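YM 10:42: non-specific serine/threonine protein kinase sequence, as discussed on the call
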Amino acid sequence: MPSGRRHSYGGGSSPGTASSYSTSTPKYRFSPAATTDKSNSFVRWISGIFISCFTPPDAVSSKAFDDSEHSVRSRRSSTGSVQRHYGNNNAKETENQNQRFTFDEINEATKNFSPSFRIGQGGFGTVYKAKLRDGSTVAIKRAKKSLHDERQGAEFMSEIQTLSQVTHLSLVRYYGYLVHNDEKLLIVEYVPNGTLRDHLDCKEGKILDMATRLDIATDIAHAITYLHMYTQPPLIHRDIKSSNILLTENFRAKVADFGFARLAPDSESGATHVSTQVKGTAGYLDPEYLTTYQLTDKSDVYSFGVLLVELLTGRRPIELHREQKERITIRWGIKKFTSGDTISVLDPKLQRSPANNLALEKVLEMAFQCLAPTRGSRPTMKKCSEILWGIRKDYRELLHTSL
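YM 10:58: structure's back
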């Protein structure tokens, strides 16, 4: 009998989490944070930029890259990638390209998709754990049979397109896909240790120490850097959040769920952004993307900043059960940081120690740079990776000397 552990391989939001954003989702504005004499220039800068109100989209965008199927097709074709998935006969081609998997084998492995094999549920559909005939254990993502077949099909093909061209230790591995009549199945790596959000909630029975949290943050930063810089063409994930981070038995992070992923703007043609409808998850969504519909890789940077604050505080991005001033976690964290009370935001499950305090201060400083309201003020993911690497090194050295 498979484990009852829940995962977040499914696209969109799972039960109990914030639902996917639409363009009608309320926009959060940040009030200026209080400052003290101890505030340095960086703190004053962070405080200042959060005063700014977001403006509506410009009437004329600067070399926007159109969000259309034609654009995706031409970009894919120019790089020799599998652009044929967007053709009219994609279902037939899909079946022919995945001879390794058959519907009968998957149906047998899941006992006709029995609820006892279910390990996750999301906007995309249901996820099952299955042991195939060759002995390998995989996760099967079964798309919903919804009324919105066109949208559902687009997200399914988007995830296939993305997963088929990426290979990284910190990304969930792709094995194949299958279309059988009205069934759409995606076969990916099974990651056995639940989601990052599960562990922050202590649902798995173990408290993540600071060293592990720094390792997880570094793994995620490397994975996103790979998507932004080392895939061809570059990719924007668009749904970085704690429930989309799966953990291995050794607590290494793997980024999952590429249903919302998009091609990055074609810099060679001079494009500065992708003009597209807003997709993402409440609390993680880049405010500039929300108001301008202009997507760039800095939107992932913003989401990563939210995730860093979540990782350090243990809180969800939106905590509706708390009093008004603490409901938006990043706003609460910024106020504490700029008032000189940084230590109070540390997850109460973590010990207050010189090493933990140092890591908290340094990572929060970088997180708030990622959360700048305008993309031009945010660092790249490569820069975030480099900074995190240095913070982790300093943390380990301080931890070693204090023993």
